[in-house]
Write a structure and sequence with these properties.
Structural class: mainly alpha
Bound molecules: zinc ion
Number of domains: 1
Radius of gyration: 16 Å
Distance between the termini: 41 Å
Number of strands: 3
Number of helices: 6
Strand content: 5-15%
Largest sheet: 3 strands, mixed
Shape: globular
Order of helices and strands: HEEEHHHHH
Length: 147
């Protein structure tokens, strides 16, 4: 499948300009009001998904009205739905997405957000693995802060 072609077309039809292409593991960014985007080259499933994640921020009109982790969750599930739409295996990207959203959620907790305020939909998305992801991300943050 030609990921490049699909992404270029998706950007064109939405009138979104590419400010810069970055490597696949580089971070993307969506400038909603300027309709510009920084996205990874979609050379693999992960890159393809990350492009859809940024496009998702436009389609979902994310302008920082919601908490960051909620917008990131919505963009990630948008991307995963696109993978499914194109018949791409979602297993490995879903793990990456869940770690990423958990990281954002932990940032919210640090600022006083509490578990009872987390939308049920997000808790359900993690299912029985919620605590497992929480632990894994906590350990990663701990290792990072120690280094
Ligand atoms: Zn995002």
């Amino acid at each position: 499948m030609d990921y490049y072609h699909i992404i270029r077309y998706a950007l064109k039809t939405r009138n979104i300009k590419v400010e810069r292409w970055v490597e696949e593991d580089g971070g993307g960014w969506a400038y909603i009001t300027d309709r510009k985007v920084i996205i990874p080259r979609p050379t693999s499933i992960v890159g393809f998904a990350r492009c859809w994640h940024e496009i998702g921020h436009f389609d979902l009109n994310h302008t920082n009205k919601k908490r960051r982790y909620i917008e990131e969750y919505e963009a990630e599930t948008f991307a995963i739905d696109k993978l499914k739409h194109y018949g791409v295996d979602t297993k490995s990207y879903t793990r990456i997405a869940k770690r990423y959203v958990m990281h954002q959620l932990q940032n919210s907790f640090k600022r006083g957000h509490t578990i009872d305020k987390v939308p049920v939909e997000i808790i359900k998305w993690y299912g029985k693995n919620f605590n497992q992801y929480k632990k894994k991300v906590e350990n990663l943050i701990f290792a990072y802060e120690k280094s």
